[in-house]
Amino acid sequence: TLERLRQRVAQLAATPLVSLVMPVYNPVARDLQRAIASVQAQLYPHWELCICDDASSNATTRSLLEAVAAAEPRIKLAFHAKNQHISHATNTAIALAQGQYVGFLDHDDELRPHALLCAVEAFANHPQAKVLFSDEDKIDEAGNRFDPYFKPDFNLGLLRSHNYMCHFAVYERAFLNHIGGPRPGF
Question: Residues 176, 182, 186, CA angle at the centre, nearest 5°?
Answer without folding.
Answer: 150
